[in-house]
TrEMBL record:
The keyword Transport does not apply. It comes from Halopolyspora algeriensis. InterPro entries: FAD-bd, FAD-dep_Monooxygenase_BioMet, FAD/NAD-bd_sf. Residues 7-332 form the FAD-binding domain. This is 2-polyprenyl-6-methoxyphenol hydroxylase-like FAD-dependent oxidoreductase.
């Protein structure tokens, strides 16, 4: 393939989507991934209709859809199991314009990799330096300078720290998060349960698997226990089947993660011939389940801009103008959601939160979500 050349730094969800989109826009693409093979952690992910539309624009929707499960019925409950808000498949279709999907991260990544030719993929290649003019140094020494560099290298981005040296980098979200995928012991509904500074969520996946996660305010997490023991103790009085799900998970399948995000928003996502994308640009707390969805949106908008313009400055100007306000607004909402939702820890505030949620009609809460889920993807149409 000829055409201008882009190097995408990082082969996570955002980087692979950017590579697929830029190829559709007529670019030659190299993805440099430092890990020895492309892969994702053993956890699930929720994809909102905005991300599903973006995947359709990238042409990978069909394959991914076969590997994902629409979340049929669920919502938010208290730790005792009382419903605070309900959501079902047909309401999601009606209010959000499409289904909310649960997918294993490894399956999503595999379906993205299938859409890229082997010659675009360089695993075991760490980018060690970058210039604003799209010059690169790498561990393998064989990555050519590019017309465009896409920094999709995650929250601890080298591209961001090199070219945005004044940015302070990630801050803690104040939570510790655990995640696991298990064989589903009995089809629990999709949903979240909220207590004081604690959330437990479960998302059915294809093939009878279930993804569960727990998020607990870091100041209440004791460090002297093994994770599974700690979780079993922490959730022992929570509604069925939370204790059972944790108990049936092998200890080694439980992943632990100290939450962090980019508290200080970047004033620009582009610098010279370099663009930041995904967590490198706007890592957000996971409360809305939108981090990867926003990375996928970034990829489609960057590709659509690349298809519509010849000049890299024009492409990047348009990308920054379209992506920064939206992704940063969603990051702020996600943070607010944590502060007034699952991270609330004082008992009176939790009582008020639960009472307020019970009073709000579910359709109204869902309409709030439609502000981010109703996004329409641009078409990637190479006119050049
Ligand atoms: C607990 C939790 C739950 C979440 N749940 C959801 C959810 O339900 N829905 C959702 O949309 N989002 C969710 N997210 C957010 C989502 O996981 C991230 O936003 C998304 O994975 C970011 O993708 P990315 O491609 O930008 O970065 P990453 O996935 O971090 O990928 C970066 C890649 O770059 C590579 N890399 C780094 N440095 C270099 C280098 N110098 N050279 C070469 N390669 C390099 C890394 O190895 C990695 O493969 C969740 C996050 C957390 C923490």
């Amino acid at each position: 393939m000829s055409g201008p050349h882009a190097v995408v730094v990082g082969g996570g969800i955002g980087g692979l989507c950017a590579a697929i989109g830029l190829r559709a826009a007529g670019w030659r693409v190299t993805v440099a991934e430092r890990a020895s093979r492309f892969g994702e952690i053993g956890a699930g992910i929720m994809l909102w209709p905005n991300a599903v539309r973006a995947l359709r624009a990238l042409g990978v929707h069909e394959r991914m859809r076969a590997l994902s499960t629409p979340q049929a019925k669920g919502g938010i409950r208290t730790r005792r199991g009382t419903w605070l808000m309900r959501m079902d498949h047909s309401a999601a279709e009606r209010v959000l314009g499409g289904p909310v999907l649960g997918v294993h991260r490894a399956d999503l990544l595999a379906s993205l990799l299938e859409a890229l030719p082997a010659e675009s993929l360089r695993q075991g290649t760490e980018i060690t330096g970058v210039t604003a003019g799209a010059g690169l140094t790498s561990s393998s020494g064989d990555i050519d300078d590019a017309d465009l560099v896409v920094g999709a290298d995650g929250i601890h981005s080298l591209i961001r720290s090199s070219l945005w040296p004044r940015h302070p980098g990630p801050s803690p979200t104040g939570t510790v998060d655990w995640r696991a995928v298990i064989d589903d012991p009995g089809s629990p509904a999709f949903g979240m349960s909220w207590g004081r500074g604690t959330e437990f969520g479960s998302i059915p996946l294809v093939d009878g698997r279930l993804y569960w996660y727990a998020s607990i305010n870091a100041d209440t997490v004791t460090e002297n226990d093994e994770d599974k023991e700690f979780l079993l103790r922490h959730f022992r009085s929570w509604h069925h089947p939370i204790g059972q799900l944790i108990a049936s998970t092998p200890a080694e399948a439980i992943l632990r993660h100290e939450g962090s995000f980019l508290e200080e928003p970047l004033s620009c996502y582009v610098h010279g011939r370099v663009a930041l994308l995904g967590d490198a640009a706007h890592a957000m707390p996971p409360n809305l389940g939108q981090g990867a969805c926003q990375a996928i949106e970034d990829a489609v908008v960057l590709a659509a801009s690349a298809a519509a313009h010849d000049s890299v400055p024009e492409i990047l100007h348009r990308y920054d103008r379209l992506r920064r306000p939206r992704s940063q607004a969603i990051s702020r909402s996600s943070r607010r959601m944590g502060r007034f939702g699952q991270q609330l820890s004082s008992s009176p505030a939790v009582v008020m939160r639960d009472a307020a949620l019970r009073l709000i009609p579910s359709a109204l809460s869902m309409r709030g979500m439609s502000t981010f889920a109703s996004w329409e993807a641009p078409t990637i149409r190479p006119d050049r």
